[in-house]
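ENTRY TYPE: paired fold submission
RECORD: A
CONTENT: sequence, then structure tokens
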Amino acid sequence: MKRFLQAAAFTLFIHSFAGWFYIAGNAVFHPQTLALPLTHFLSWPREDTAGIISFIISMVSFFVWNLIKDKK
């Protein structure tokens, strides 16, 4: 079970960090789109909200991954 949680936390960290990195890059080159919805299917979340959520998830999952990873 520990290995599963460790792998899940690391995977969640990588993917949420990639999502934040995408939004951060988009904010640099297209800042006017931050107030737009992330997708045209839903009105929520907006791009800026999705970036904040992604960053928080990446921080928490990185913290969890460091807590449960095997010390060598």
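RECORD: B
CONTENT: sequence, then structure tokens
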Amino acid sequence: MRYEIRIRGRVGEAMLESFRGLHTEVEPADTILRGPVEDPSALRDLLRRIQAMDLELLEVKRLRP
């Protein structure tokens, strides 16, 4: 499944390296991650990484195929 994950603020290049495999888009106020996530377990791991980096998660949505 493909997801779009929106994070508040501009995430720096060093942190974005942890999200390899996802397309990243840095907007003026937010950072957006888009791409495939293998399964629910991989999604939970991704969300845990975001939390561990002390980033503010704004939205997670599943994209249509």
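NOTES ON RECORD B: The chain is about 25% helix and 40% strand. Residues 10 and 30 are 5 Å apart (CA to CA).
STATUS: closed
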